[in-house]
Amino acid sequence: MGRTGFTVWLVVFLDLLGFGVVIPLLPFYAERHGASAMAVTGLMAIYSLAQFLGAPAWGALSDRVGRRPVLLWSIAATATCLAGFAAADSLAMLFLWRGLHGLATANLSVAQASLADVTPPERRAAAMGMIGVAFGLGFTAGPVLGGLVSRWGLTAPLWLAAGLSALNWLVALATLRETRHPGGPSTERSLRPATWVRALRHPRVGACIGLTAGLTAAFALMESTFALFAGQRLGMGPSEVGGLFGLAGLTTIVTQGWAVRRLVDRFGEQPLVPIGMVLLALSVGALPFVPAGGVAIVFCAMAAGQGLASPSLSGVISRGAGEDQGLVLGVNQSMAALGRVVGPATGGWLFVAWGPEAPFVAAAVLLVATGVASFPALSRTREGMTASGV
Predict the structure, then answer these.
(1) CA-CA 20 to 30 A from 231: which of 169, 172, 293, 368?
(2) pTM, 2 dp
(3) Going by C-beta distance under 8 Å and a sequence separation of 6 or more, which residues neighbour residue 14?
């Protein structure tokens, strides 16, 4: 992976570790401030809405001024926002700090672009898989750690997450190198809607960016409502929910760190996308209906499906993006963030209006539709890459 790749990986891991710490306690912490189920999912949605707005900005800005300064600024802001969230004394302040936190952490596209800068095109899916390993480790250790630390109060994991982000900044400051010369070529540096339209109409990867939105929206439907479902139907608290997310993270590590690289070498990225979506659809749809003892098994299957589909799709998009890695990956992350806005908002409404099982059924239906749409989208990408010699 090289020194630069490892440093970027470490930055992403520490960032996601801090994020993962918050996951199992967020619904319980919000309810302490008077949040309803809709408000809980609204906190998740506003975070992703801010990422939707911020991701193309940071991606395009990193094309212009370099990856390092953008990552350093966003990590410092993350630590500040987590501390503000922990100190908040009202639901309104929770929404304010959560939104600012989402804006600060809309930096994944910059990390992806940093790896793409130093990775040959044929190895991009494997590189994105290693980013997925960082996600997996963060979601393994983070939720478990958050659940354990919550014994000292629901704000304790938040302060821990702020401290981890501060550590992340120190690591990046000391070790992160620039991978792109500032002022390099970039076709677009704007937040105008035309930027997103232009990316979605990209001749090779535009349709695949649309798949990213569908995939993440479906996963967010599950993620944003599971703690509520587990609390009401299974009697679980932060520690138990954190343990399940930790198990899912461990499965993601194995899938993205070991299986994806070997499967890509043998079959390429494109076949793994619909296969992962099918596995994810089956497991998410089954999740609310299996006995309590089988939830862990279904969580593992769900994480494996996500672990196959997500890095493979990112690899396809990166290979077809050309020189504007920051912009294209930024718009791709923006579409993913849009999915994480629509998913929790829809999930909260379905949970209240139709019952705790409804978000999971809706997520499974959306995944099936996205999986069907992946065949023509990937075919178009394959034909475009072949014609351009990519």
Answers:
(1) 368
(2) 0.69
(3) 138, 164, 165, 167, 168, 171
